[in-house]
Amino acid sequence: MENAVAANVLGVAGAVCWSIQLIPQIMVNYRRHNTTGLQSSMMLLWAIAGVPLGIYNITREVNVALQVQPQILTALSLVTWAQCRYYKRGWSRSKCAAVVGLIGAVFGGIEVGCVFALRQPVRRGTQWPMTLMAVLSALFLAAGVLRHYYDIYQYRSVRGISFLFVGIDAAGDLFSLLSLIFEPRLDALNCVIYATELVLWIGIVLCGVWYGRHSSEKREAEASPSPPVEELQNQPATARSASIHSTSSAVSVFHTPASLHESTEGDNLEPKK
Predict the structure, then answer these.
(1) Alpha carbons within 13 A on the beta-carbon side of 96
(2) Angstrom distance (rounded) from CA 170 to CA 155
(3) What confidence tens digit (pLDDT) does each residue in 135-153 have?
(4) DSSP codes, 25-61
(5) Which tens digit of pLDDT belongs to each residue from 90-121?
(6) Distance between CA atoms of 103 and 108, rounded to whole angstroms?
(7) Alpha carbon distance 47, 63 (integer Å)
């Protein structure tokens, strides 16, 4: 379904989303002065994913917006990763800046070198390097998000991640995916990259809604007046047990920018077995 205007407009929309996607998360981290629940390994994996994705998009000569997109992803991911090191590991700002600068320079050098090395072979019909780049990018992006799924499994909660960040990122994936559909030639591998991450983010949102609903039920149960001790003592043992059990479960809420006023009690949470 070729439509150059639609492809460029949607590509730009995807690039804009990816340009600002991590800014809400960065602001949340800065205002809270901690990165509790945010996985530094996720941010580093995303930064790495931007390299093969950039090589793939530039060598394939897709629209310019999608060529710029991976560079923005890598840069913002490295900034967020540095925040994790600063708040969690106590790194100094100068150390964070130096390490991020060094990693960025290495990633940039690898990307530029691979683009120049692969352009001619690809034009001559050699496709396996592009397949490898697409697979690596999809794997690193998925591994980053899946690392957060493991945290959800441990704590039965979606902790430390900005809902606004998730929404913008998912929108960027969707716009990029639609942009590829309007290209002269449908790039199936690139579609897989964006579709994979989009599906994983939808799963994160559903987890946030699920645990947020349970948290609301818990707050409502806590707000309701407890029966007097005499009433509990007069109840049968089974009813007494059920009443106590209904108020004992605790599930953390889905952290969003609106919940910045919450305390950092997540630091003391123990993983659920």
Answers:
(1) 16
(2) 23
(3) 898 899 889 888 888 888 8
(4) HHHHHHHHT--TT--HHHHHHHHHHHHHHHHHHHHHT
(5) 999 999 999 999 999 999 999 999 999 998 88
(6) 9
(7) 21
